[in-house]
Amino acid sequence: MADQTPQFPPLSTPYAPPPFSFPHLSPPLPQPIPSPNPNPNPNPNSTFHLQIPFQGKRKRTGFRRKASHPSTSEVTPPLPPPTPPPPPPPSLPFYPPPSGPNPIKNPLENPSLDLSEEIIVINKEPTAEALTALTAGFPADSLTEEEIEAGVVSSVGGIEQVNYILIRNHILSRWRENVNNWVTKESFTSVIPPHCETLLNSAYNYLVSHGFVNFGVAPSIKEKIPAEPSKPNVVVIGAGLAGLAAARQLMLFGFKVVVLEGRKRCGGRVYTKRMEGANKSAAADLGGSVLTGTHGNPLGIIGKQLGLSLYKVRDKCPLYRPDGNPVDPDMDGKVENAFNKLLDKASRLRQCMGEVAMDVSLGAALETFRHVYGDAVTDDEVNLFNWHLANLEYANAGLLSKLSLAFWDQDDPFDMGGDHCFLPGGNGRLVQALSEGVSIIYEKTVHTIRYGVDGVQVIAGGQVYEGDMALCTVPLGVLKNGSIKFVPELPQRKLDGIKRLGFGLLNKVAMLFPYVFWSTDLDTFGHLSDDPSKRGEFFLFYSYATVAGGPLLIALVAGEAAHKFESMPPTDAVTLVLQILRGIYEPQGIEVPDPLQSVCTRWGTDSFSLGSYSHVAVGASGDDYDILAESVGDGRLFFAGEATTRRYPATMHGAFISGLREAANIAHHANARALQIKVERSPSTNTQACASLLADLFREPDLEFGSFSVIFGQKTSDPKSAAILRVALGGTRKKSSSDGVKTDRQRSNKLLFQQLQSHYNQQQQLHVYTLLTRQQALELREVRGGDEMRLYYLCEKLGVKLVGRKGLGPAADSVIASIKAERGNRRASSNSTDRMVDTKP
Ligand SMILES: Cc1cc2nc3c(=O)[nH]c(=O)nc-3n(C[C@H](O)[C@H](O)[C@H](O)COP(=O)(O)OP(=O)(O)OC[C@H]3O[C@@H](n4cnc5c(N)ncnc54)[C@H](O)[C@@H]3O)c2cc1C
Asked: Is the CB of 270 under 6 A from ligand 1?
């Protein structure tokens, strides 16, 4: 069967530049490098098309390949999540559009200029560097919420921010050019003008402390770990990727670290088992196996530092019917198409349903449509269709009947770009390297964690480990099971989050054969079942012959079948797999030998995991990942692991990144404690709670003009009463007047940049906020000249500071609460609202 890579349908929304530009960048933007990020929004009517490969979510192979978001040709707006994904706030510059050509001035060449008002020129690669920043998880031209919280610039928006971003992107790019290097601040002083030294410090410190540069296992990095730790003690619970990443990073920062691990080995859900027999051997990844996207993937960086090359999983994935005959390619294509359409219908449904979609499962929506539209009709088609459902259950490690229709794919915008890859020899090589030099005590099953103002006590067996702080990285399954007693009990909102999020199951049968009898021009093939309840049973096979060092096949068990599999005797499982393989290969005249060794996983009953990976279950949302990440006990007890990352849940890289994140968080709290500064709980309980509320309230703004919306604190006409303004970045914007003077080449480069940025923005739903008075909001509405002039007025004339939702602070919390209460009353009394909707452009 031919390559199964589906064609992603062209989208028809005309291109419109985002509300941002690099109007003053000079010299001309260079030819861009291809972005690793998908570009779902090419404008078919434009002569300018981005030819960036789309990492189709509908590809059938690879971990967490899922359905796409609805195409942008659909007119219904997407259902806003309870809180938007992390909103990198305002894009660049908040100053009036230039009245004419405004060539960039190099401040070094013109000392009479006010330097702080000039955009610096670091080199000729700002676009390429911005794209590198995108791959590393930063918006190329704006700040992340975390950067704003860390106070990397003195005020958000404006030229200082532009310069910071240029410097940040440059440092990131320089390190990514050679990740074996320890990049020093001093190495930038020749290219960063002296007046930007503070920004250089700020960007460098942020990137190093948050693990964006100078992390990993390269000798130059390892040698920076101080021989004598001078910082407080941290007890890390769990030696999976999250625990190991955090431990290494903390050691680098000078903390004294001990890792307590319940198993006899490290790696947790990354487990490469050496299989052997009759002079054959192979490395089998029984847990996490596929690096889902290489661009910006920190595990790819670790691999690079170890001199390991990744192997791209090929797209070709033939499917076989229950009787072993190949599926007809035409029917295959037709059903895949129907399946994708059904997912699109489900997406549209959730948009219409609004919040109700939170209480409905993806499975229920798909089943309803399936019956209404009768997409699959013959038995063969039904089997094929069920295979796609199994694939979706595999991607999410969850029964479709348990996945939230509203948010099951909330992390899709943060998919790492690039190929899906295997690491030859298995991911255990990464684990091995990460664990070297880390003090890990094995077979220490933690059953109690006490935390308080003075520190923590972690109890495993009869031993008590005391520390200044602790980091808990145990899987969500272990938390759900209550295997660890927290004293005092965890806050109710965290307990609720733990309960709401789903933790599903995926199992594997790994088989080492005496020789490769299957085709070597593919890495995957699938098998259909005619029993819907067994649709996930050995539905997909991974051939590891090219990367495992021997003739290894792995069969996957997903969905309902994965649960039944937990109690299936291993010999029965292997017999069933062999039946399938013989059904496929023997009619082709190929003999299928008995395996030399087989292993069946039991991730569901493994007491150190109790499941495979997390998903957004019915009733849950992306917020729950944030809640699970919240520290407790005034900066004493922290949490990391795949189920604590909203952007990259259920993945190996997500676990690793969460470890780096918490190392930064722990260091921040420890430093603040040392300086006796009170750290605001981050993210604060209130802020989190208000975030969802805020998103709800802005669905019905009191005022709307351009990209601005306002909700009023009180229904009085008091001009001094409080209001909350939200600026939506990422929509459309009229061309800046300066565009007219650019050359075609400049324009097309800029367009590319903007298009990428636009794509990023659309994915990210950029929202920034401020508190202001009713009077100010009304004044702002009257400003002519479009959004740019309004932003200028807001920042320069009203002097307000735009912040991410978390930066609004307690004053806003009470305004939000009062609006909520008032609206509740209004609804209750069914009065008509006094809502004004101003549709000024
Ligand atoms: C079958 C399967 C296939 C997967 N496939 C992929 C894939 O292809 N690509 C991908 O990116 N991801 C995949 N994943 C997900 C990925 O493996 C995980 O997201 C990631 O490894 C989780 O890392 P972690 O550090 O958060 O948790 P873990 O790796 O689970 O680490 C937690 C550690 O805590 C220990 N622990 C638990 N309880 C205690 C206790 N009470 N006391 C002391 N220690 C304790 C555990 O033993 C474990 O070592 C897969 C997972 C599974 C199970």
From this structure: yes
